[in-house]
Structures are given as C-alpha cells and as structure tokens.
Write a structure and sequence with these properties.
Helix content: under 10%
Largest sheet: 4 strands, antiparallel
Length: about 70
C-alpha cells in the first residue's frame, strides 16, 4: 500500500461475511509505500482456513477493500 501523507491508518483482514479476522496495522504510518505481512493467523493466533479473504485499508477519508486468497 502507499499513503499520500503521514497519518493514522488501519489495515485489517476480514472473512467474506465481513467478520474481523486480524488487524495488521492500526496507528500512525509514514507517507509513501508501506508493507504489511499477514502470517495467516487470526487475532487469537490460530491458523485461518484456506480461502478468500478481504483486506481493508482505511486512511483519513479513504477506504479501499480488496480480495486475497490464503492457500495452505
């Protein structure tokens, strides 16, 4: 992801029903390119099942949701 300016950002993984699986970033982030790596676990540290998930990036008034596939 890339942010147009420094500020508070939130990057989270959700299942297809919209339930939160894991928050990868929730706080201040610098301007420019950034990276977050999801290790395939949920918020409790348990392995998430293979399948399609959504990741949502929120920054200021901007929100973007995209799909990702977890293959075990």
């Amino acid at each position: 992801f890339s942010l147009p300016s420094a500020g508070r950002a939130r990057l989270a993984v959700h299942d297809l029903s919209g339930a939160l699986v894991r928050v990868l970033l929730d706080g201040e982030a610098p301007e420019g390119p950034g990276e977050a790596v999801w290790d395939g676990t949920n918020a409790n540290g348990r392995r998430a099942a293979s399948g399609v998930y959504l990741y949502r990036l929120r920054f200021d008034r901007f929100e973007e949701t995209r799909r990702l596939v977890l293959i075990r």
